[in-house]
Sequence to fold (322 residues):
Amino acid sequence: MSDSSSAARPAGRHNLPYLIGGGVLLAAIAFIAGFVVGSNRTANAADDASESAPPPTTGATASPAGDDTAGPGNFRSLDQIRSSGQIRIGVFSDKAPFGYVNSAGDYAGYDVVYARRIAKDLGLDVEFVPVEAASRVAFLESGKADLILANFTVTAERAEKVDFANPYLKVALGVASPDSAVVTDLSQIKDGTVIVVKGTTAETYLEKNYPELTVAKYEQYTEATSALLDGRGVAWVTDNTEALAWTLQNPGFTTGITSLGDADVIAGAVTKGNTTLLDWINSDLTDLGEENFFHADYEETLQPVYGDAVSPDELVVEGGKL
Fold:
């Protein structure tokens, strides 16, 4: 008897592997077809939603009602600020006597007194947001601050990016230098370095009018004054109000130039387009003028520094009007 692979098998089992394989293949085909159809439906639905969705908004707009936060390019309206119970005001933390942190760890200075009065008139708490000169515009654009009160000189270039309220202080540029070599005219400076703070009108003025000068730029006012004290510069160009205040408190230095360039004004600033807050600030300035608020502010914060060297009327603006 020979052994053979062609031996007879029961008919029911002979085709079972082929039937199972065929069934799996058909199921796989059906699954793939269903997946493709479902994917197409999802894609079509997404396209329909995209076509019907409104286009994104751009530019400075108030945050949605009930939202007391502000994202990039946004601001909080006056109503939103009020509903939050707090106004965020950007001030300097290192520029005495205008905005600084005193020995007790509290914010103090001319701008800070004004900021507290704004919060009081609104019936709100105030959150002080420390800013540097170069970051003032950015803090408004990003919504980190509702209002900037940080010795902010009004210029046409800045007014393209923020909205300025009416003024509350007059200012020009001044130049502080050592008594051993007082600078009374910038033409005296041939080889030395001039110190400025980044983002200030002093920086812009020197770039435009004295491009030949060597200029060292610092982020903070304390860095600039330290550089002058250390002899890393022959002069410091800054607001004349600041130059006078600093030299009066630092023996061995003099404000040899008390008025450089054009006379300017200082004002509060809000995010571009925040008209509700801007209008309120201007209205409040009018009311404050009736009580000579800024003369009182001067007597409290600036008089102890300037003494008889400066008359209040040389600097103070009441009611937002020159």
